[in-house]
Specification:
The protein is an alpha/beta fold and 234 residues long. Helices cover 21% and strands 28% of the residues. The chain folds into two domains: 111 residues, 3-Layer(bba) Sandwich (FAD/NAD(P)-binding domain), CATH 3.50.50.60; 109 residues, FAD/NAD(P)-binding domain. The protein is built from five helices and 17 strands. It binds flavin-adenine dinucleotide.
Length: 234
């Protein structure tokens, strides 16, 4: 097996007069052929555009309480709403610390959600957050549009996501629309809508988590191997 390190800039179905499968071009100019592909390109995140977010990403600006909740337990926490599912995210957070939900003036919870917020002790703040304050990556709190300061030691939010490479689109793979953005549509073995192309990891799921990403990589590897055995046995 050859291992080639490089950035794939184009993927296409091969000219069948030359070979079966796919042709991949790397940024260095080399061209590679494969009968089957697994796309595991991950996603790129676009954070809400508020000064102070990006330098705290992964430290005190977080996306997932199941990944980071333990690291920020027992301190004041915020949820900066970025999409309609943000109210659902906020409902999870009080198990790690007292929680304020910042609607940003755009994502007002529905009545049933407000009842659930009251039961969970979540404070709702409707004046938008305009800046994160503190010696980054530490966070002291957030500044609101009316000048008030609200003390929080970490905030959760939901960045917009998309596969970090257009390879799946180039190959014509179908995508699903998730609440944070598109992801590659796959079956339980990671097979995409294009025969011969599998996808794994964050690029092919709603839930972005390292263990889930590696598990779907295992499934896609099994799917590819079994497809190759079927082809050889035919
Ligand atoms: C801030 C932050 C904190 C997180 N913390 C946790 C945590 O605590 N626990 C947890 O379980 N998960 C956490 N996650 C999620 C976890 O990082 C992802 O679920 C996991 O890394 C996804 O793995 P992946 O292989 O699908 O994608 P990635 O890890 O993104 O890897 C994709 C790789 O493909 C490469 N690539 C992309 N395009 C091309 C191309 N065209 N050609 C060649 N190579 C390409 C990229 O350079 C990259 O190396 C966190 C995510 C973020 C953003």
């Amino acid at each position: 097996m050859n291992i080639e390190h490089g950035h794939a800039v184009e993927a296409r179905v091969s000219d069948h007069a030359v070979s079966d499968g796919f042709t991949i071009d790397l940024s260095g100019g080399s061209e590679h052929r494969a009968r089957r592909l697994i796309l595991a390109t991950g996603v790129s995140d676009t954070l809400p555009s508020i000064p102070g977010m990006s330098e705290r990403w992964g430290e005190t600006v977080l996306h997932c309480p199941y990944c980071h909740g333990y690291e920020v337990r027992d301190v004041s926490l915020g949820v900066i709403a970025a999409q309609p599912m943000s109210a659902h995210q906020a409902l999870l957070i009080p198990d790690w610390g007292p929680t304020t939900y910042f609607t940003q003036g755009q994502f007002e919870p529905e009545t049933a959600e407000l009842d659930a917020f009251a039961a969970r002790g979540i404070i709702v703040e409707r004046t938008p957050v305009v800046e994160l304050i503190g010696d980054a990556p530490a966070l002291d709190g957030v500044r609101l549009a009316d000048g008030r300061f609200v003390e929080v030691a970490a905030v959760f939010t939901a960045p917009q996501t998309k596969p970090s490479s257009p390879l799946a689109e180039m190959l014509g793979c179908a995508h699903e629309d998730g609440p944070t953005g598109p992801y590659v549509k796959v079956d339980q073995w990671g097979a995409t809508s294009v025969p011969g192309v599998w996808a794994a990891g964050d690029a092919a799921t709603l839930m972005h988590n390292a263990t889930l990403a590696s598990a779907t990589g295992v499934l896609a590897g099994i799917g590819v191997h079994q497809a190759s055995v079927r082809a050889k046995a035919a």
